[in-house]
């Protein structure tokens, strides 16, 4: 039998800790995410404006479009909850984190081989800059998403973090791919695929601590 | 599936020992009358949480009255400590309040609340380095003295319940938690699967194995008592 004192104590606790309702929280999260995504977009605009890209426009358009589509799918899976209040199944989230880098590599390489010289080795461009830029551009969207979903997942916060990390890195990869003219296998794997995989792994580690339920005291 | 003999929410699981496993289907835990009452209750709780998530602060009191007793019962069974159960209940309700914005329209509040409670309880155990001894009794149910027509029947009921409690404590944790959430807290297979982060099929399998183990163990006990 619950005591009325306990109820009063709980009601007083929540009175002292206001929390936003659904509508207000949605507006805040959206603005935060847009701001986090805008930074890298502006940055790549400045970078790309100063570089000459030898790729045909058709190759740029197809690789960027495909990566963008994969990013939308990854983000939909990571951010959506599939109609369940406790979110998507762990296997769906982990599959997203694993499939994202594979999908990017497959799409990028499949289109690049169709154009002459686009997959020839380019020793001056091993992929370090693309690696760093991808991780850098993924950081702000991931931070915004982790902040918005902090402390909300009681069942599989690590898997959610992995999916959010991979989706954030996919977004960054779209931006970097818009600028990067290199298409040989070694560069794509090091500079574009590896950061997506690492972002997923990092997201898993961070997610377990940030996204999981914590003692509210 | 027909009604479970003599069962009503809150009765010791000893009453369910006669449940035929073939009758266990996805959402059928109670008799049909109890099921419709359970659905109505869940709909009311979901509506209260939905209003609260949308910004109606007065809905929290109604939500508390609807789900707090069930949550508290679950926490009390798991912790066997009234003060800790009260504390965990308070933390759970605070989490529901703090993250009310994440509750989407049409969502189901009960699996969410139970999952939060379970996670807070696990976190608490880890923090306190508590051993999962499995030695303590898991149910607080007691024989219904009014239904016993004789002292012998009362004693038999008590022995039976102690036997059930002992066998339950020996079950692997995954099976024990699944069967408790379904039988004591009245959650459906789907809801238990959401709370435990697994599939309905896996939960059904755990409950099936738990019942088989209990049936084998209690069958032996019944035979011993009859000799």
Contiguous low-pLDDT stretches of chain A (5 residues minimum) are none
Low-confidence stretches of chain B: 1-29, 132-149
Helix content of chain B: 55-70%
Q: Most extensive chain contact?
A: A-B, 35 and 42 residues
Secondary-structure class of chain A: mainly alpha
User: What Rg of chain B is obtained from the alpha carbons, in whole angstroms?
Assistant: 18 Å
Average pLDDT metric of chain B: 75
Cα-to-Cα separation, first versus last residue of chain B:
33 Å
Keywords summarizing the entry:
heterodimer; A: 217 residues; mainly alpha; 7 helices; 0% strand; B: 227 residues; 8 helices; disordered N terminus
Structure description:
The complex is a heterodimer of chains A (217) and B (227). Chain A is elongated, with a radius of gyration of 20 Å. Chain A is built from seven helices and no strands. With 217 residues, chain A is an all-alpha fold. The two termini of chain A are 24 Å apart. In chain A, helix 5 (128-148) packs across helix 6. With 227 residues, chain B is mainly alpha-helical. Chain B has eight helices and no strands. In chain B, helix 3 (82-98) packs across helix 4 (109-128), helix 5 packs across helix 8 (200-226) and helix 6 (173-183) packs across helix 8 (200-226). Classes of the chains: A mainly alpha (217), B mainly alpha (227).
Task: Please outline the helices and strands.
The complex is a heterodimer of chains A (217) and B (227).
Chain A: H1 4-16, H2 22-49, H3 57-79, H4 90-112, H5 128-148, H6 157-179, H7 185-210
Chain B: H1 32-54, H2 59-79, H3 82-98, H4 109-128, H5 151-170, H6 173-183, H7 189-196, H8 200-226
Helix pairs in contact in B: 1-2, 2-3, 2-4, 3-4, 4-7, 5-8, 6-8, 7-8
């Amino acid at each position: 039998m619950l005591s009325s004192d306990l109820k009063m104590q709980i009601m007083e606790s929540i009175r002292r800790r206001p929390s936003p309702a659904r509508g207000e929280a949605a507006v805040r999260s959206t603005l935060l995410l847009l701001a986090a995504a805008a930074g890298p977009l502006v940055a790549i605009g400045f970078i790309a404006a100063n570089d000459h890209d030898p790729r045909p426009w058709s190759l740029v358009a197809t690789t960027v479009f495909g990566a963008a589509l994969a990013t939308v799918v990854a983000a939909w899976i990571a951010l959506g909850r599939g109609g369940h209040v406790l979110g998507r199944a762990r296997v769906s989230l982990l599959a997203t984190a694993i499939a994202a880098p594979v999908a990017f590599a497959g799409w990028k390489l499949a289109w690049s081989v169709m154009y002459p010289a686009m997959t020839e080795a380019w020793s001056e461009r091993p992929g370090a800059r693309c690696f760093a830029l991808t991780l850098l551009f993924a950081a702000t969207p991931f931070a915004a998403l982790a902040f918005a979903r902090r402390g909300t997942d009681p069942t599989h916060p690590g898997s959610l973090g992995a999916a959010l990390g991979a989706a954030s890195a996919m977004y960054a990869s779209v931006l970097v791919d818009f600028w990067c003219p290199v298409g040989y296998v070694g560069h794509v794997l090091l500079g574009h695929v590896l950061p997506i995989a690492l972002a997923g792994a990092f997201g898993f580690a961070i997610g377990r601590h940030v996204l999981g339920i914590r003692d509210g005291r | 599936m027909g009604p479970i003999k003599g069962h009503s929410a809150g009765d010791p699981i000893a009453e369910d020992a006669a449940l035929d496993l073939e009758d266990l289907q996805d959402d059928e835990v109670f008799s049909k009358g109890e099921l419709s009452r359970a659905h109505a209750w869940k709909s009311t709780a979901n509506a209260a949480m939905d209003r609260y998530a949308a910004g109606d602060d007065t809905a929290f009191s109604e939500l508390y009255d609807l789900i707090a007793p069930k949550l508290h019962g679950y926490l009390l069974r798991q912790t066997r400590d009234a003060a800790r159960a009260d504390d965990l209940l308070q933390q759970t309700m605070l989490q529901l309040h703090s993250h009310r914005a994440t509750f989407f329209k049409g969502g189901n509040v009960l699996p969410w609340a139970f999952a939060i409670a379970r996670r807070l309880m696990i976190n608490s155990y880890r923090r306190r380095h508590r051993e999962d001894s499995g030695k303590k009794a898991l149910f607080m149910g007691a024989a219904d003295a009014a239904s016993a027509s004789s002292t012998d029947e009362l004693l038999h009921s008590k022995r039976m319940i102690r036997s059930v409690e002992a066998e339950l404590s020996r079950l692997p944790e995954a099976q024990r938690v699944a069967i408790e959430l379904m039988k004591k807290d009245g959650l459906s297979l789907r809801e238990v699967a959401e709370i435990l982060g697994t599939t309905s099929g896996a939960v059904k399998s755990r409950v099936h194995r738990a019942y088989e183990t209990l049936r084998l163990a209690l069958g032996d006990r019944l035979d011993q008592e009859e000799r």
